[in-house]
Structures are given as structure tokens and as C-alpha cells.
Amino acid sequence: MLAVPALLTACSNDNESTPEQSEIRLKSDVWKMMEGTRATTIDDTYLQDHGFSCTAYTAGTTTANTDANIIGRTVSWSDTKWVFDDGSHYWPTSGNLDFFAYAPQVGSLPSYVSAVTYAVDGTPAAAPYFTCKDLPLSLSPADGTQEFVWALTTGQNRADHGVSGVTMIFKHPFARVKFKLSTSNNSNVTVNSITIPAIYCDGTCTLTGTGNTATSAWSNLSDNDEGLEITGSPATSDDAFYLVIPNDYGSKTLSVAITWKEWDVEYNQTLTAPLTIDWAAGYSYTYSLSITKNDLRVNIEKFTEQW
Predict the structure, then answer these.
(1) CA-angle at 199, arms to 223 and 207, nearest 5°
(2) Range 44-70 average pLDDT
(3) What letter does residue 48 receive in the DSSP assignment?
């Protein structure tokens, strides 16, 4: 998860402020992921290079607060701090705000994210959601499928957070998987493709809870006729991660198409191994493959990292 503390401080001496105003100033200490990532996954470096979109709502509603006037605003990194691209924004003199942010920002969303909607559900409680449609499942490292992350912090106000700040903790709604060859593998083997059948590529994801306790819950899952298929020898490279929709998929069969070379003769065949899959949002899964000419074994010991 990625934490972007947005420090909102009173500046009575600022030329752009009046004594009644408390300007929103952003500073960040973005938490790093526990593993190295591909360029297509979002980390602190990505946010600083590309920014994110942010909206401030009147607490408990779907109405953007007109006093703060933070409505789909782009937030960018400027040398040592976060700034709104359109200039300064200020706290309302009273009342609470709910802050919602996501990246990539408006206008740069990946093609599989067809909607990002801010809703209120329950007591009231904010419940943003998006629709995933046609998440690419036939991948190679060169495809560059871009990730999506989001953050929600509710119940913020000038009195309590004008100085201490508002912390936006970005969460990963997807899971990611990685395949690597065991160090015991023979150098004569080449992996041509890796396939797991019947993995969903459509669904609705809802952000439940706020801040560090927020979780991404998936529903309306569909379109699993095709499996996850990773092609090309880079499939098992050290920096090759692949986005997947989290779900308890149960028992699956992992298939690995290989080329095995003996002297000057090459043999092509497909090896299989049973696999139990229960992927959770925000986690990274590494599968270590031990391959011989006629056998495939999958090691999942210590294969899970919180992303």
C-alpha cells in the first residue's frame, strides 16, 4: 500500500490567505512496496512522476464540497511537496470532508477500468467502486498493462487536521503474480508459455472502509472462458509481474509449455501440475517452477508478500 500524507496547515502569514483561511498544503512520505516492481505497477516513484486525481466531498455525501473546491483535481509532485495543479485550496471553516483519490489520474485511466464512481452506502459510509472490463489475461512483459490504485480518508476537518494533515493510503485492488525458475533447473530448458485456465477478467470492485483499514472487495465476476496465458521466455524474468483479479479460484491446473534441448535436438512438450489459488487484493504471489524433461513441480513456500 502507498501512503501519501496530505498535510493541511494554517498559513496566516501567506499572502494568498486570510486569517480565516487554512490552506491545503501537501507533503508526502510514500510507503514503499515490500518487493521490487515492474514499471507498470504503481509505487511512490510512479505517483511522483505522474500524480493522482483527488476529490473532497462533504462528509457522508456524494456531493463535492464547493468551499474546498477539490473536484477531480490533479495533484502533482513539485520538488519536495505535493501541489494542486490549479493552485491553492482551503478548508471550509466548519464541517467534515471525505477525501477520495486514485491513480492513474483522470484522462489516463487504463482501458480495463471503465468507470470510477463515488457512492455512499449504509450509515452513511463512502463506498467508491469501479468496473473492470476485459483485463488482459494473455500477457507478456512487453504488454505494459497499467495498474490502478485508490485511497479514501473520511471525516477530516480544519480543527483536527488543518495542522496534522490528511493521510491518503493508496490500496491495490488487484493481485499480482510472478513465475520464476528454480535455481535447480537445467539450463537446457526454455519456458515458452505458462497457462492457468478460467481466471476472471471482468468484475466490480468496491473500496470498503477507509485509510489503512480499507479493503477492495470484488463482486459480479464474469468472463472466465479464457485463462491467464503468459507467453515468451521473459515470462519467468525477475521483474515480470502480472495483474489478476483477486478471488478464491480453488483447484486449477498449471500448464507450462517448454522446449528441452539435448545435444542438437529440441523437444517441445507441455507439463502440468495441480495448483490451489486463493488470491487476495493487494498481495503479490511468486510461483517457483522446478522443471525437468518430464516433470513440473510448483513451490509456493514463502510465496506471498503483502504488496
Answers:
(1) 80
(2) 90
(3) H
| pTM for the whole structure | 0.86
**Sign of dihedral through CA atoms 67, 69, 75, 79?**
negative
Number of C-beta neighbours around residue 212 at 10 A: 11
List Cα–Cα distances, 65 to 54, 56, 70, 95, 282, in angstroms: 12, 6, 7, 10, 30
Domains of the chain, residue spans: 2-306
Strand order in the sheet with 138-139: 138-139, 228-231, 189-196, 247-262, 265-279
Alpha-carbon distances of 50 from 45, 53, 106, 115, rounded to whole Å = 9, 10, 11, 20
Contact present, 25 and 7 (Cβ < 8 Å): yes
- Please give the grid coordinates belonging to residue 103: 491513480
Mean pLDDT of the chain: 80
Q: Is the dihedral of CA 237, 238, 239, 240 positive or negative?
A: positive
Residues counted in the chain: 307
* Nearest Cα residue to 191 out of 161, 159, 235: 235
